[in-house]
Amino acid sequence: MDMMQFQRQTTQLAMTQRMQESLRILQMSNADLSDYLLAQAQDNPCLEVRLPEGTSVAPALPSRGIQNAQDRDAFATVEGQPVSLLAHVEEQIELAFFDPGDRRIALAFAEALEPSGWLGQPVPDIAAAAGVDLDEALAILDRLQAFEPAGLFARSLAECLALQLDDLGLLTWELRTMLDHLPLVAEGKLAELARRCDCELDHIRENLALIRSLNPKPGEAFEHGRTPIQPPDLRVLRGKDGWEVELTRAQLPRIRVEAATTTGDPAADVWLGRAQSQARWLMRAVERRQSTLLRAAACLVRHQAAFLDHGPRALKPLSMEEVAAELELHPSTVSRATATRLIETPRGLIPLRNFFSRSVWSDGPSAPQSQDALMALVGEIIAAENRAKPLSDDAIVKEAKAAGAVLARRTVTKYREALGIPSSYDRKRAAAVAC
Q1: Radius of gyration over alpha carbons of the chain, in Å?
Q2: Each residue of 238-273: pLDDT tens digit?
Q3: CATH assignment at residue 375
Q4: Which of 43, 116, 119, 351 has the highest count of CB atoms within 10 angstroms of its CB?
């Protein structure tokens, strides 16, 4: 085998450190951008940052480049998130269990809690992990099930509901029997349930109304790492010439570059010159971020104006590549600019990404169509159906065709499941139970 040496010239785009930093700034939320600029202002005497109104800041080192606004807006008054389920339970364990051994077993049960408030592991497994016998573990569990809110540490839906009824003093023999036969409730076999409970059908319906008033997942009232509430990045308003987009500048940090003064020390003057250059670059990077975000949002709103006028059914197929080509940007830049952004519209607070919609080809007169629009159509058809006689997927196909959309039955099934809508059989059964 002969070895050969040759030269080849290629063209590549090298990502400099400033280019990478610029892309990071583009993708930052307003809150992250404020934190980032604050950190930069701590080390840069030429950079002055004014925080958005209503922003609360953790204590930081004093700096001449940081100013805090005094006014607060509506978003600054949002209540704090509730405590976690585990913290709530641990606090009650500290008060209820004085023996260190019992407290250790109780904490083992607490660690097995699911976000719903139910136990996520079998009691024998928890007992084995805690190194105690089953009877001792069950005795601790019995005490834990008296915690607030009622229903915590349940091992099943029936036990969760029974704990809540017992806490209210309403757990009768009939209700206990109904909870033991919840599958009959799910199947809508109320007559069979009345026979087993030895009562009238009307009494079963009254008990069902009471059961429905209970909370099947009491643990969900506590914090589980949910996404914090964020103010919108943009706002869309109707102007003289149609829909107009603007940045919510009240949520944007303001930057000012201060002139570097000479100190007489050559080394210090060089350092100040670099600091001033860095501050100017940061200002330009933030301006590019705002400009790119505004251009991308304006393009999306321009293409999807019908959505703002008429709702999801009017969404048009629109890809990220099409927007990037129109704005003469790379698709990855559009992706970064629109990720996690919220826009305030007359239809509520909407993720900016919702304005993109996948194109779906069909044999209909208006092909191609938006997948989101077709999914919304399926939801509207089902919402308008007779609850006593719900439409099958084949019937939905016919209704969609009458509305100008040609869908396959399997496509209707896929959209229905994506919307969280049960089958026609399950919808009919649920309607019978509700009567």
Answers
A1: 31
A2: 888 888 998 887 777 888 888 877 777 888 888 888
A3: 1.10.10.60
A4: 119
